[in-house]
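Need tokens for this chain, all 62 residues.
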Amino acid sequence: MGSEKREYPDIATCVVFIAATLGKEVRIVAKALLAQSNELGIDAEELVHTQYDAAQKNIRDY
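Here are the structure tokens for all 62 residues:
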């Protein structure tokens, strides 16, 4: 239960997808994600994957 590792696109693709769903520029989203990961003390890749999942869910729910 929960031990499966999910396959994600490369980080750049995830960031572009997140930016597109937010209607923001990629470079701004990338900087914000990096700053947020530093502030929260979590791995940037983990944060990007979490936000990617949320963006996909928002698209499906829309």
